[in-house]
Amino acid sequence: MMKNAGRDVGGAPDIAVRQLSVWYNQMPALQNINLYLGAGQVMAIIGPSGCGKSTFLRVLNRMIERLPSVRVEGAVRIGHFDVFDDHVDVTGLRRAVGMVFQHPNPFPMTIFDNVAYGPRIFGIKSSAQLRKTVEDSLKQASLWDEVRGKMRRNAETLSGGQQQRLCIARALAVHPEVLLLDEPTASLDPVSSAKIEELIVQFKSHYTMIIVTHNLQQAARVSDVVAFFEQGRLIEMGYTQDIFTAPKEKRTEEFLTGRFD
Amino acid sequence: MITRGSQRGKMLKPTAQGRVGHFMLAGIALLTLTLLLSVIIPLIVQGAPWLNLAFVFRRPQELGSGGVGPEIVNTVVMVGITQFISLPLALLNAIYRVEYDHGSQFARWFDPGLQILLSLPTMIIGLIVVDVAIAHWHWPVSVGSGIVALSIINWPFSIALMVQVLRQIPDSWREASWALGASRWQTIIRLILPVAGADIIEQTGVAVARLMGETAALIYTAGLNVGKKFSLTAPGETLAVHLWYVRTEGLTAHADQEAAATGLVLLILVLMVLWGSQKMAQWMKA
Predict the structure, then answer these.
(1) Domain B71-237, what fold?
(2) Which residue of A has its CA nearest to B104?
(3) Which CATH number fits domain A15-256: 3.40.50.1580, 3.40.50.360, 3.30.479.30, 3.40.50.300?
(4) Is there a contact between B179 and A120 if contact means CB atoms under 8 Å apart?
(5) What whole-number distance in Å separates Cα of residue B241 and Cα of residue B215?
(6) B58-92, pLDDT tens digit by residue?
(7) Whole-structure pTM over 0.90, yes or no?
(8) What residues are paired with B66 via a beta bridge?
(9) Which among A81, A97, A107, A168 is the top mutation candidate for probing chain B, defined by the most B β-carbons within 10 Å of its own β-carbon?
(10) Quick check: A66 and B101 CB within 8 A?
């Protein structure tokens, strides 16, 4: 469906979802989702609350399995990971598919330890190597200039926007190829939100990204493709410009123009 | 209070109901404080004149006179070993309860089971130890039997405290750790325990303070007297048991003062434990 337009996408993988359905107990949360996202592209998922956006995101890195009595059907492929395969390396999958949450959730540790957490989990002990990874990740997340020399401060002393960029740096420190962003600016002020958006635009083509957002302007600004979900179904998906200027489905148009019940 | 004296602006006051509510709650707080002081002040008045270094270090004598030196040692050692045995077990139980997904059946039996163990009178646990360890296995009435009784008492109590500590850790931190690729066990070792460490120490202080005041389970297991030298197999009267004994069976003229002085020593020990564990927790959090 969506082809990557010949950009340098490094190691970023593509994502293919086939006939995906998810149930919580007997309640369907997602029904028969089919979509393809090209390597290095940014997809924005929009839709009303409870439409299955967050569920979809949490299927991709199998965070969903933490919830009791969840059943899945269909197939999800991220690069070479067959996500639902019983023998898939979940640790490797989660390492490759980074996640940023709606509320900044830095660990109650120093700034350094927050970013070094992932690399340490994966067995990096050399302090020189850790320092380099932490510095690189913070630079990538545009936080380095604000926190250099304050590595030993507790992360909770940072502002909300800084905390969210720290969480992005923490995710980047394990060198993911995909980034899942679950309403990453929903709890931030406009200036902090703008900084996060800038990052997403900078990351384009280095990472394949999926961002769930309630902010339609944000979706328009950062994404290559937009998917509109309603009641667990994928109603429409297309290039961002096409969706916002000429949606094919009536429901999409109603949602975008605010005439939605 | 920028406007004070300038006559500009006005003070915003709580409503009449708000003030009544405030005074009622303050009154109840004052009542509680009065009750606490009505216990502590007579204790100090009666016990303080009797409290001196000889009392703290000397051995007790017949009929409840003499010092409380061995009782202090017994209390500290028995409670210490008890924590050493039961706290790691309780922590593992609590970790399994909070950090792992288990079938719904497990929680359905675990939580009420824990409540039942918690509400069991400690006297019953003492009698079980008497029936099994002392009557059946012929263990002596001793420090060792007392430690077994205290460990059984402390185990569920510490599980409840540790479950509370672990539940205070927001799930969003666990999610962040899992999303980075950490396994459950790595999350426990690298995130949960370091983050919970200070609270674990503070709550252990609470458990220690509670055990120091335990009497019913120790009367028949650790006994009412002390060995010539400290030993796991020698009788091990604790401060709280000594206090109970002197108060009920003491036949000396100064039994009440000795009991009050023993109570003061126990109170000071408890305050030291609570203060120390809190300071240590604060230091760890900083």
Answers:
(1) MetI-like fold (1.10.3720)
(2) A68
(3) 3.40.50.300
(4) no
(5) 5
(6) 888 766 667 788 889 999 999 999 999 999 999 99
(7) no
(8) B60
(9) A107
(10) yes
